[in-house]
Structures are given as C-alpha cells and as structure tokens.
C-alpha cells in the first residue's frame, strides 16, 4: 500500500539559516502521525514543504501519490499555525465561505457541531475567545472532508474542555479513514492521538515510532521522587540509585531526590528506610517514563550535538583565519 505522505531527505534554507537538513518521513493511510520538537526545529517548514506552500531546496516529497503542488486541493485540509480569517464574519459565515470554495463541501452547521461551537455560530470571529477562534480555524480545515489533514499546533490556546473536543474529533476522523499529520508541543496530545510520533530536531527526524516504542527505547526508568532536603549521600546503602533531579543547565533541585528504576511495590521499603534513619520528607510521588521524558532526552541530545558542531565550526574558522594571517 502506497504511503499517503512520503518525504525523503528534504532540505530548506532561508539565507544562512537551515530549516530542514535531510528530513525524511512516511505516513500510512488512516494513520495519525505527530511531529514534535523544540521551537525552531523545522516542524512548520516541514508541513509547508509537504503541503506545497514552500518549495524545498533538496529532497523529494509526495502526498496522495502526487507532488504536493499538484495534488487536488479538495482532498487536502490544512490548518497553519498562523491563521487570521476575516474578523467581521460570524463563525458560521466563515465556515460557509470556506465551504463555498469546494464543489462537495460538508454542511457548515455540522462542522460547527463537530468543533463544539453550535451556540457561538452567530458570534463574530473577533468576539470569540482565543480558544473558540482556534476551533473555528480547525473547522475551516474540515469543511471539504479531506482525505489528508495537516494540523499545525491545532489546540494552541484552547481550554482543556475544548481541547478534548478537538481530540475526539481527530480520533473520529482517523477512525473514518482520514490520514492526519499534526504538530504539537503537548506531549499528552501526541501520546493520546498519534499512532506514530516523529521527533524533529535541528531540521531532521532524529527518532520516530509508536509512543510506546519511543518510551521504551528512550524514556529512561521509572522514578520515585522524595521531597526531602536530605543529601543523596545519606542513601548510600539503599539498593537503588538516588540523585538530585536535574532542572537543566547543570542545575539540580535542592528539596528533593529521585530514586531510579523502582517498582511501585518497593515504595514501602523506601519509606521504611527513611523512617528507620529519621530522614525527614514531606511527600512521595512515583512515575513511569512518558513521551515528555523521551522528548526531553532526545531534544537535549540533539541540542548538545548541535552546540558541539557549532563550536567545532568556530574552532575550524579560527584555525583558518590563523592560517591566512600566518
């Protein structure tokens, strides 16, 4: 079966800035594929290259069996990250307008119901809340009942209840056979919706797979966080590794320790250990690794590799300049 989305070694540069540096991805029919990654990683540029709104400098992309610029736009739904429809139209009027761009569009009132805005249908766009506006924008990408849907951070600014409405809508679309590619910074969103997740960092896909496989391979171990000012050294004879939590940039948290790779059944043994040694603590919390742990681990590795490359490049430039003046 031919992939609905196929990109191989896509490259895109804006002046001296490299947005994509060999990004490759494949999305199967009916699949929900989520792109995650830091700001500036190239997610939006990749979506633009896949939807034909920007021309890559290198590599190859095909969607629905054709070049992105040649595909029938009626089969494609696109919600960009930045989208500003006319403010003096109501939510319903906006959907009627976008529906009018297609020969066989859905009923705008049905789309309003899908995004949970039946009661706000006659409200001007400019008078809707930010979250309601974003839901109208989601609806505008659905009026043509697309075979392939691109959503660039679809739930940004939407309240938790509205976010769940959009999540259920995406799940229903996927169940009905729509292929969905979405970008998000919300790891819970990616973990709930995506069949597969790709982490984009420094312009390339550094890891992809099911959320469960990514967590298994990159998420690390389970952990018990103990809220205590005690130094990790006092846990020297505990059978588990104990350390201060890392809060980035080489800094650690001073009022907690983390016990690594521990099962819930062993928490009682840690409590007994604390009490037997009169180690004061104010709380305990146990957690399994999740997609956020994967994101932080892989994004951190990619950032360190990028920094190393930049530093090596600077060193080589210094050596070159020194050679020129010698």
UniProtKB/TrEMBL annotation:
<dbReference type="GO" id="GO:0016887">
    <property type="term" value="F:ATP hydrolysis activity"/>
</dbReference>
<protein>
    <submittedName>
        <fullName>ABC-2 type transport system ATP-binding protein</fullName>
    </submittedName>
</protein>
<dbReference type="Pfam" id="PF00005">
    <property type="entry name" value="ABC_tran"/>
</dbReference>
<comment type="similarity">
    <text>Belongs to the ABC transporter superfamily.</text>
</comment>
<dbReference type="InterPro" id="IPR050763">
    <property type="entry name" value="ABC_transporter_ATP-binding"/>
</dbReference>
<dbReference type="InterPro" id="IPR017871">
    <property type="entry name" value="ABC_transporter-like_CS"/>
</dbReference>
<keyword id="KW-0547">Nucleotide-binding</keyword>
<keyword id="KW-0813">Transport</keyword>
<feature type="region of interest" description="Disordered">
    <location>
        <begin position="307"/>
        <end position="326"/>
    </location>
</feature>
<dbReference type="InterPro" id="IPR003593">
    <property type="entry name" value="AAA+_ATPase"/>
</dbReference>
<dbReference type="InterPro" id="IPR003439">
    <property type="entry name" value="ABC_transporter-like_ATP-bd"/>
</dbReference>
<dbReference type="InterPro" id="IPR027417">
    <property type="entry name" value="P-loop_NTPase"/>
</dbReference>
<keyword id="KW-0067">ATP-binding</keyword>
<feature type="domain" description="ABC transporter">
    <location>
        <begin position="5"/>
        <end position="227"/>
    </location>
</feature>
<dbReference type="GO" id="GO:0005524">
    <property type="term" value="F:ATP binding"/>
</dbReference>
